[in-house]
Write a structure and sequence with these properties.
By secondary structure, this protein is mostly helical. The chain contains three helices and no strands.
C-alpha cells in the first residue's frame, strides 16, 4: 500500500460518504490519460503478454506512469515487516523513557 491508499483508508473512517462522492467524480479520470492507444498494441485479454517457454519475459507492470513511480516505499516495507518494526519502535520508546528518567534524576 502506498501513502495515497493509507490516506484513503483513514478518510473512509472519518467521512465515508464524502469520500465516496469525491472518488465517484475523480476515480476514473485519475486512472486515465488522453494519449491515444496504438492500434496494434498487444493486450492481455486472452493470454499473458509475457509469453511462454524460452520466449517468456516478465514485463512487470509498465505503463505511461512509470516516470512517476517509485522504486521503493517505506510504507510498503513496514507493512511487510510489521513485527520487527513494532519491536524496534517499542525498544526505542523504552530507551527514550529510560534516558528521560535518568536525566530527571540528575
Amino acid at each position: 500500500m502506498g501513502a495515497s491508499t493509507v490516506g484513503t483508508v483513514l478518510a473512509d473512517k472519518i467521512a465515508a460518504g464524502l469520500l465516496d462522492r469525491y472518488l465517484a467524480h475523480t476515480g476514473c479520470d485519475s486512472q486515465q490519460t488522453d494519449e491515444p492507444v496504438p492500434v496494434h498494441r498487444p493486450d492481455n485479454l486472452w493470454r499473458p503478454l509475457d509469453g511462454e517457454g524460452e520466449a517468456a519475459r516478465d514485463y512487470g507492470a509498465p505503463g505511461v506512469f512509470d516516470d512517476r513511480a517509485h522504486g521503493r516505499s517505506a510504507q510498503a516495507w513496514l507493512s511487510r515487516h510489521a513485527g520487527p518494526a513494532w519491536i524496534a519502535a517499542a525498544l526505542t520508546a523504552v530507551g527514550v523513557a529510560l534516558r528521560a528518567r535518568r536525566n530527571r534524576r540528575s
